[in-house]
Write a structure and sequence with these properties.
Strand order of the largest sheet: 4-1-5-6
Length: about 180
């Protein structure tokens, strides 16, 4: 064991006596570290708010809403209000679906969410006994950037999550509203 330490110490002394060897060894230690630091820093948070909030996603609600038990309900506008508060994506709210879709195809927006005119009606269809699944129409510009499609997927998952919460409210609140209204009459 003593011989191993003697050999190691003599090798270290010889290395420090040769300037070229010191430079090569320092380069072998520093260059991989620099590569790793720059690579990790550049990809630190690709799906975080600071990265995805710059992506413009057009949102338009054409939902007409319905009246249930004397109460006017428009879930499409509730979704738009929830997205206005959300800062995960760069939501841009347009007036018409044509404007949103044209913006996607022209490259102005990365994607577009179009809430159709019968969205609320389909969302609360369970009150009538026949359940219909509401759809949100999604357009994306795949040519803009391949990585951004993954980011758009994250934003869409968030909007689907908020819609699921609204659907939960509809399933549990509207029957109670109907019951209370019936008891009040």
């Amino acid at each position: 064991m003593k011989n191993i330490f003697k050999i190691f110490i003599s090798d270290v002394k010889r290395i420090f006596q040769n300037v070229v060897a010191v430079v090569v060894i320092m380069g072998l230690c520093v260059i991989p570290c620099l590569y790793a630091w720059f690579n990790i820093f550049s990809n630190w948070d690709p799906y975080g708010e600071s990265s995805t909030s710059n992506l413009k996603v057009a949102v338009v609600s054409e939902d007409e809403g319905v009246t249930v038990a004397g109460i006017s309900v428009n879930i499409g506008s509730s979704v738009v209000e929830a997205l206005q508060e959300n800062k995960v994506m760069g939501w841009v709210f347009t007036e018409t679906s044509d404007e949103a879709v044209d913006g996607v195809y022209s490259g102005e927006y990365y994607a577009a969410l179009v809430i159709p005119d019968d969205f609320t009606e389909e969302m609360i269809s369970f009150l009538g006994g026949q359940i219909e699944h509401p759809d949100i129409i999604y357009y994306e510009n795949e040519k803009k950037n391949g990585n951004r499609n993954v980011n758009n997927g994250n934003g869409i998952m968030w909007s689907n999550d908020s819609i699921s919460r609204i659907r939960w409210i509809c399933y549990f609140c509207f029957p109670w509203i109907r019951c209370c209204r019936t008891l009040g009459n």
